[in-house]
Amino acid sequence: MTATEPAPPLFELDHAVVTFRIGSLLAGSRLVAVNDVSLSLAAEKPEIFTLAGESGSGKTTLARVMLGDQAPSGGQVRFQGTPVAEVIRAGGHKAFMAEVQPVFQNPFETFNPLRHVQEYLIDTALNFRVAKNRRQAAEAADAALRTVGLSLEEVQQRYPHELSGGQLQRVSVARALIPKPKVIVADEPVSMVDASLRMEIVNVFKRLRDEEGVTVIYITHDLATAYYISDRIAIMLRGFVVESGPVEEVLDHPAHPYAQLLKESIPEPAPEDKAAWTRQITLGATEAREFNQAGCKFASRCPSVMERCRLTDPPDFPVGNRQVKCYLYDRAEVGDRKP
Ligand SMILES: Nc1ncnc2c1ncn2[C@@H]1O[C@H](COP(=O)(O)OP(=O)(O)O)[C@@H](O)[C@H]1O
Ligand SMILES: [Mg+2]
Fold it and tell me: pLDDT under 50 in the chain at which residues?
């Protein structure tokens, strides 16, 4: 690359698709868990990018694609300009994982209940070769723990169950930080944690962005914390990103009827209102029917549904700085409508 060329995006999804075969080979059908998703994360500017949506909307599948654990069935997924599969083929999965680290929902499942938590951190440092010996590994563990507001001294000789869910989730963020990744993909990191402790974890993500230059993919159905920490948000519905853009624009004035419904199901985000944090959106279980229906996946529930919504998937239409997958924002449609 010459000096005049701009750096490629840190991460780029270009019409990514993931299709699963469900049911038996003969009677089975296909389920498009990630459908035509495009997004780009800039290399120069670390950000917190939220993926939100009800259970079964494809968030974890998209996370697995970004972590290199799930190959896309279509489209491209590039890390720093190179397809993830190629990055892994050339340098190995561990080298890719050193750049892109996961944080999972349940910290008690991340750690072996029979081992002191510091052993896990020390092993991680040795495994990723950020330390040559146990003493250096302990130093790396302590540095990572301090980034999340803890220290090796505080967790030393403690078993996972001896820490609170909030503390243990911060330890698992510290573990993810040890190889000094550029990206952290956190899949519902606060949903198992007491509402009163959620802020201490999401504040860690803010600090990672602001002080460590780490880009965070924050997956959640908690729009309140998403509003509080994110720069941008993408709302997923049945595999599609139906609305994406700056978090204030999307959550203050959602354009897509589904985003409007999501927002109505939680109180106005108010960081000072503790009770509001405890509320979550639960819109019911996965409806495979919606995945497989033609056209917009929200058509059967949408108060503004039009004939063509049931026929063809809407493309993305620009609304301000947002992209909205809804025919209401088709200029022709707006022009056609009576005032
Ligand atoms: N390995 C798989 N095989 C078949 N279907 C899957 C697989 N993984 C996920 N799915 C389906 O894909 C859809 C999206 O799942 P997921 O990505 O876990 O959503 P979310 O994280 O938003 O709850 C769901 O209907 C789920 O059942
Ligand atoms: Mg999930």
Answer: 268-286, 337-339
